C-alpha cells in the first residue's frame, strides 16, 4: 500500500488539533482550578466563522478582521480556547479591583486571562513540535465567542491550523474591503 501525504494530510492535521486541545487542557491553571474550554472548528463552520468576522468589520471598523477571515478560509481547522468566567478569590488586584467582590461581572478575573494565555502557549508549542502552521487570532476568537462555539466562555482566542507548502498565516497583506 502507498499512502500519499496529500491524501492523509487533512486527517493528520485534525489529529494534531486534538493534541493541541489536550496540551491546552493539561496546561497549568491558577489555583489548580480548570476553567479552560477547548473546541475544534471544521467544515462549514469555518465558513460561518469567516463570514461572521467580515460582518463584524461593519460594526467596529477593524479591517484586519478581513485579512484574518481569509486566513480562516485557508485553514484545515481552527482550535478555539477560552475560559469560563470565575473569580479565583485571591483578592490579588490584577483585574484593577482590590477585592474580588468589588470586581463587576463584566470584568474578567485576571487569573482567568492568564489561564487562557498559558493554555494557548501549550497548544501552540504542541503545534510547533508537530510542524504545523498556526497563528493566534483575537479576531477569530471574538467571532467564535459571538457564534457561541464555547458556551459560557469569555476571553476566547482562535488558532487556525494548516499544513501546506507555505504558511498561509505568515506573509499577510492587509485587506481593505471584503471580497478582494
CATH topology of the domain at 8-14 and 35-82 and 113-162: NADH Oxidase
Query: How much is the radius of gyration in Å?
Result: 17 Å
Major sheet: arrangement of strands? 1-2-4-3
Number of extended strands? 4
Number of helices: 5
The CA-CA distance between the termini, in Å, is 43 Å
Query: Low-confidence parts lasting 5 or more residues at pLDDT below 50?
Result: none
CATH class of the domain at 8-14 and 35-82 and 113-162: Alpha Beta
Helix content: 40-55%
Please trace the helix and strand order, writing H or E for each element.
HEHHEHEHE
Summarize model confidence as the mean pLDDT: 93
Shape descriptor: globular
Estimated share of beta-strand residues: 5-15%
Give the CATH superfamily of the domain at 8-14 and 35-82 and 113-162: NADH Oxidase
Major sheet description:
4 strands, antiparallel
Assembly form of the protein: single chain
Structure, described:
- The chain has a domain at 8-14 and 35-82 and 113-162: NADH Oxidase, CATH 3.40.109.
- Helices cover 43% and strands 14% of the residues.
- It is built from 5 helices and 4 strands, in the order αβααβαβαβ.
- It has helices at 5-26, 44-60, 64-73, 110-129, 138-146, and strands at residues 36-41, 77-84, 133-134, 153-162.
- Helix 1 (5-26) packs antiparallel against helix 4, helix 2 packs antiparallel against helix 3 and helix 2 (44-60) crosses helix 5.
- The longest helix is centred in the N-terminal third of the chain and has 22 residues, at 5-26.
- The radius of gyration is 17 Å and the shape is globular.
- The mean pLDDT is 93.
